[in-house]
Amino acid sequence: MKTKLSSFSMFLLWFGAAISMAEIMTGALYTPLGFKNGVAAIVLGHILGNTFLVLAGIIGFREKAGSMESTRYAFGVCGSYLFSALNVLQLIGWTAIMIIVAGRSLNSISISLWGFDNFHLWALMVGLLVILWLYSGSYGFNVINGIAVSMLLVLTIVMSYTVFKGGMPAVASGGMSFGHGVELAVVMPLSWLPLVSDYTRMAESERGSSIAIWTGYFLGSTWMYVIGLATGLAFGTDDPTGIMLKANLGVFAMIIVIMSTVTTTFLDVYSSAVSLLNIRKGDERLVSVVMGVIGMMVALFFPMEQYENFLYAIGSVFAPLFAVLLVDYFVFKTDMRNSKFSIEALISWVIGSVLYYIIMGLDIPIGVTLPDAILTGIIYAGIREAEMAAKPKAL
């Protein structure tokens, strides 16, 4: 996909990516915290997660490299292959989740409007639209995406009014700690870390794209989370479809579901193709279609009850990965692109992944990602410093 993205286009791209049914569904998981604490955890988590997202994007802009290709700087060629494979798996998972959520929502709406019940048909239709969106190229990025995001803005306003018009939702209790709430907010922008450079490499400006990504995704994602939280408290459900039907949106609700899904999911499909092409070169368009088809097929079998665990798994893999990459790129500048792999980086990543689950058990108020990233960065820096100290000094 060869195009240049202006800062405004980048803002629309990431604002549109954030407005999705999956984010509303995740926001509904916060109901045990109540509204005030839930919003605080959502905002804090997004501040942390978006900062990581922007830092990773800067590398892609400067090196004009995709996200998984940029991991070669710290992990070497074979290391980047490992993370490309892991990224393809998580992106296929995200593609399936988005198609499932959209398919279920569209099916609920069609049952309500016409009595028509066929989840599989709606899921396949959404998947095909995602593939067609990819074929639209720069026009889809810059023009169609702007129109779609404008429509999605109407969604957020209507849903916000419907949810909040009765006053502040009731307070719930039990079931989630503040720290776990922060982490569930961090992992959503964190899940985009392995994708962000696929788009910042096409940006016109480093500063402009960084501001656009941070503000676009922060505004869109926190808004969706809060709507989900309020929906769960006010109506006892994590399904935004019912809210749209209560607002009498009808066919417009179907358009909203489709557009919000496509503007997010095509990023997952495209980046899964870019990651796969980091391992083996091929035709980008053809690989994108194949990834889209695989995502549609997986959607028919994906265990949605494991959604929350899926989010934590993403954090455990990519938080320590990008902690190592950021420390290496901005501090040590080792540039391992011509090496097969870096033992130091891989050891640090493995330790960081283990630490992620250990820290999760400690239930720290600031979540898991930040302390895990800091500790992983310190471990990697310590290993690098020890390695340099052990090398004989030139006379």
UniProtKB/TrEMBL annotation:
Gene3D superfamilies: Hydantoin permease (1.10.4160.10). The keyword Membrane applies. It is a multi-pass membrane protein. The chain crosses the membrane at residues 38-61, 73-99, 119-136, 143-164, 176-196, 217-237, 249-274, 286-304, 310-332, 341-359. The keyword Transmembrane applies. Its main location: membrane. InterPro entries: CodB, Pur-cyt_permease, Thia_CytX. Keywords: Membrane, Transmembrane, Transmembrane helix. It is found in: Membrane. Pfam families: Transp_cyt_pur. Belongs to the purine-cytosine permease (2.A.39) family. This is Putative hydroxymethylpyrimidine transporter CytX. The gene is cytX.
